[in-house]
Amino acid sequence: MFKPQYPRPDTYTPATIRPAPTPAPVEHSAPAPAPTTAPSALAGLGRQSPGTLLALAAGGVAGVLALASVAVSLLLAVAVTAVALSVSSVVLLFLVRALRQEFKGR
């Protein structure tokens, strides 16, 4: 009665899973080749399309802006707290001095 009915996805096509190819047997009589250095992460970026590079750059800028906005909000919170404490300390000092003078007058 209350069972939800979900529409069939029309844009999703699941990826097929293929078994990994079996490696060929290696002969141990030949010397092993010299190890090569792994390509850096930036070398892989050159093979991407310009749209992908633009999206990556925009994501990096968005991350930096998000971090900057968090830092600015924290500094603003500290500044507002400092102003509130300084104003309240001036008010308290005024009240204490007024009460001292009132008690000295009596």
Index terms:
106 residues; mainly alpha; 2 helices; 58% helix; transmembrane
If you had to describe this structure to a student in words, what would you say it looks like?
The structure is a single chain. With 106 residues, the protein is mainly alpha-helical. The protein has a domain at 74-106. It contains two helices and no strands. It is elongated. The termini are far apart. The mean pLDDT is 77. Keywords: Membrane, Transmembrane, Transmembrane helix. Residues 1-43 are annotated as: Disordered. Residues 29-41 have a biased composition (Low complexity).
Helix-strand pattern, N to C? HH
Task: Let me know the number of strands.
Answer: 0
Structural class: mainly alpha
Number of helical regions: 2
Radius of gyration: 34 Å
- The average pLDDT is 77
User: Between the first and last Cα atoms, what is the distance in angstroms?
Assistant: 84 Å
**Strand percentage:** under 5%
Helical fraction equals 55-70%
Low-confidence blocks of residues: none
Biggest β-sheet description: none
* Overall 3D shape: elongated
Protein name: SpdD protein
Organism: Streptomyces racemochromogenes
Biased composition (Low complexity): 29-41
Region (Disordered): 1-43
